[in-house]
Amino acid sequence: MTIPTPLWRHPEFAVGARETRDVALGIGAWGLVAGVAMSKAGLGPVFAIAMSLCVFAGSAQLAALPLMVQGAPLWVIWATAFCVNLRFIIFSAGWRPYLQSLSRPMRLFVAYFTVDFTYIAFMRRFPKPVDARAHVAYVAGNAVVSWIAWQATTVLGVVLADVIPERWGLGFAGSLALLGITASLLVDRATWIAAAVAACAALAAFALPLHLNVVVAIAAAMAVGILIDHLSPARPAVERQEDAA
Amino acid sequence: MTAAMTIAAIAGLTLVSIVTRGFFLIPERELPIPAWLREALRYAPLGALVAVLLPEIAMTDGHLVHTWRDARLYATATGVLVFLATRSLLGTILAGTAVLLALRLGLGW
Q1: SS3 content of chain A, % helix, strand, coil (to 5)
Q2: Segments of chain A with pLDDT less than 70
Q3: Which of A118, A165, A167, B42 is the most buried (most CB within 10 A)?
Q4: Smallest Cα–Cα separation from A201: which of A183, A217, A185, A219?
Q5: Which of B25, B53, B56 is the best residue to mutate to test the A interface, defined by the most A CB atoms within 10 Å of its own CB?
Q6: Do B25 and A216 lie within an 8 Å CB cutoff?
Q7: CA closest to A58 among chain B residues
Q8: How many Å separate Cα B109 from the centre of its chain?
Q9: Among B81, B52, B56, residue whose Cα is nearest residue A173
Q10: Could you give the angle at the alpha carbon of B99 between the alpha carbons of A156 and B75, nearest 5°?
Q11: ipTM, 2 dp
Q12: How close is the nearest chain A Cα to the Cα of B22, in Å?
């Protein structure tokens, strides 16, 4: 038996870190804006920073904050965050085949650090499972960079809330990062159509509370995507056989 | 909200992060995920991205933008062009932000 090398020496760690570095500016811009918003919500800097460090979920935090400041019941605060995080439950089904060989505590530990970008980048890197150690090394490299970029800028945003001019719209850098990632996923007809339908669904369901339109858009993209996959005559016969097997 | 309540809220929210992100990783036994669902899951990130992105780039107060004098539209177009030309995420972010700032601070859009 060989002595396992540390995770950060695994080549996939560097790949994960490098891919995340390219969008770190976008993550950081969002962290900054989230920090400013958290500071202005009136929770106080200590709790705002503690919340960011522990919860590590930007949109859920921003949804929960006003409720906390108003003194809403705890269960309402938690239920709100749960609904905003529903997309992660869908993603977790995708994680399962990749992380199944780990122990349960380790699976949950890894899952806790997987934000949206981690999931998307991971699935682009590993369309099919290869080996558990490579998976974990990639996630670790990705998560270390995104955690630092997010937390450092959130703290900065909380501290410098009064100095940062909101008018500039610096948070848009985060949207541009998303834009690039979305564009990189549009690789064929099925993905283009799925994206277009998801956009319509998100718009039609926009009035729903708690970002539930995101869940509607995910469902729409999945339904349309699989429909096209199954109806398309251009689909390679090899894949069809794989499905049948 | 008292300090103790705030701490309880934060602890609970942390648990919510762990439970939602790890939801289907909690059971030990094999989960029968049907093949069609596994295939469909490939499209989940795309749906989430589009839904999160749309209000950021093309909506104001819950409605689609109805003016051409919105700096975000040009920043988005720039970002798309730069990405298609270079496939660089960093370039997309930098070019789009430059256009946004120029239009916001220069023309007040």
Answers
A1: 75, 0, 25
A2: 1-4, 167, 233-245
A3: A118
A4: A217
A5: B25
A6: no
A7: B17
A8: 23
A9: B56
A10: 90
A11: 0.84
A12: 5
Strand partners, B60: B63
Name which of A143, A131, A165, A140 is nearest A36 in CA terms: A165
Which token pair is A228?
A: 């096209």
Is the separation of the CB atoms in A177 and A56 below 8 Å? no
Q: Span B31-59, mean pLDDT?
A: 85
Other Cβ atoms less than 10 A from the Cβ of A207: the count is 9
Shortest CA distance from B64: residue in chain A: A203
Determine whether the interchain pair A168/B50 forms a contact, defined as Cβ–Cβ distance below 8 Å. Answer: no
Q: What are A166-172's contacts with CB under 8 Å, separation 24+?
A: A166/A36, A167/B104, A168/B101, A168/B104, A168/B105, A169/B71, A169/B72, A169/B100, A169/B104, A170/A29, A170/A32, A170/A33, A170/B97, A171/A29, A171/A30, A171/A32, A171/A33, A172/A29, A172/B56, A172/B72, A172/B75, A172/B96, A172/B97, A172/B100
Find the mean pLDDT for residues B91-109: 86
Of B28, B33, B97, which has the smallest distance from its Cβ to A176's Cβ?
A: B97
- Chain B residues in contact with A226 by the CB 8 A cut-off are 36, 39-40, 43
Structure tokens at A200: 């319509």
Parallel, antiparallel, or unpaired: how do β-strands B63-64 and B59-60 relate?
A: antiparallel
Task: Please give the model's pTM, rounded to 2 decimal places.
Answer: 0.83
Does the beta-carbon distance from A99 to B10 stay under 8 Å?
no
Mean pLDDT, all residues of chain A: 86
Tell me what pLDDT residue A144 has.
95
Interior angle at CA A55, CA A50 and CA A60, nearest 5: 120
Strand residues in B1-109 grouped as ranges (E):
59-60, 63-64
| Percent residues over pLDDT 70 in chain A | 92
pLDDT (tens digit per residue) in B46-64: 898 898 888 888 887 777 8
Question: Out of A47, A108, A180, whose CB is closest to B18?
Answer: A108
Which tokens in the block code for residue A15? Answer: 């790949």
Contacts of B19 in chain A (CB under 8 A): 82
